[in-house]
Amino acid sequence: MKKIHFIGIGGIGMSALAQMMQHVGAEVTGSDRDASPVTTLLEQKGIHVMIGQKAENVPESADVAVYSDAVPVDNPERARAAELGITQLSYFAMLGQVSEGKKTVAVAGTHGKTTVTGMLAKILVDAGAEPTAIIGSLVKDFGSNYIAGESDLFVVEACEYRDHLLELSPKVLVLNNIEWDHTDYFPSLEALQKTFKKAIERVPADGAIITNPSNHKIASLLTNAKAPVIDYTKEPAYELKMIGEFNQENARAAAAAARVILPGISDSAISQSLADFHGTWRRFEYKGKSARGAEVYDDYAHHPTAVKETLHALREKIRKVSPRLYVAFHPHLYSRTRDLLDEFATAFSDADKVFIAPIFAAREADDGTISSEILAERIRATGVDATALDSFDAIKDALSEAGEGDVIMTMGAGDIYKVADALVRK
Fold first, then answer.
1. What is the per-residue pLDDT for 426?
2. Across 68-204, where does the E strand assignment appear?
3. What is the pLDDT of residues 192-214, one digit of tens each?
4. Residue 299 forms beta bridges with which residues?
5. Cys-Cys link to 413, which of 146, 234, 330, 332 (CB 3.0-4.6 A)?
């Protein structure tokens, strides 16, 4: 039995992979910097998570140490693994290994891939296809970000960052959309497109590419595709519990992929599964009411397009009942905030008040060229009331002014959701 230690096991992909390894019989341990709903889930599933990353966390008998992108080479656990001669693999390298020999369905693109992966997994599970699935958030319908299946069907959310998508060899590739992102790795949209072009050209002739071939950022990448291209935009509108045109696009992509994977599936089966899909953690998630009666939502949006579309959908939902929409935004990465500053500045037009948290550094160092204060100033220049605050506590206090009839949305890829949780805590 293999012994696998996960460094950064609280990461959403890492935690799903850890559950998968446990399911197939490996002895799994792991650590993370902080406790979270994900680490709680792992503990409930019998995977011990050590909070705080220290050299002594690494079992001397481990066969493999798997690390996330957020864990640098000088991390004490990676250094200890190297000292012990333990093989180290990145999350996506490990994912590539475990997907070998399976019928892999990779869901990729800048926006919506978590929701598409969850929707597609729901359709396949309901149809009895018994897929294994790794999803980029906790899916309410499954109570996890991992589904243990018994077939050779492997559905996985795939990320383009650092060309991780190319670690996989999918039979079916779902490509929602493309926008310039991960600017710390891709210097331009064209560089990003090259990665997706390689992924497209690797899909075998007996596979399929599910995408929008009319999207001008995608169309030119399809010229040398071996596999047939399936246009998901030809799918009808679906009845969904989730609002927003972007979720209709997600549903169409999931439905088109399901038809390729299960050619005999009926329209009614797809429709019913999508109508029953309850969504995922941190994707337009309703959290409850604050102490003063404001409705509180949370969302993972961290790219300006996702921020803009999510807030627009929320504004449309509440237009007749709520006079004020408060937003707390946690910028993710200095590079993204700096390189997409113009787009971020105009992304909050549907908000009445915006509070900006300090930028979540993740894997980057602050070079002094960008800050939450600069972003707030640029937002104010568009006519939206925006303030940079220096802590989550300060943001929570500021949001506490929202009352009955108001709506609050916390947004970002970091842990801004903790502010929403604190606001609705009984």
1. 52
2. 87-90, 103-108, 132-139, 144-147, 153-157, 172-175
3. 999 999 999 999 999 999 999 99
4. 411
5. 332
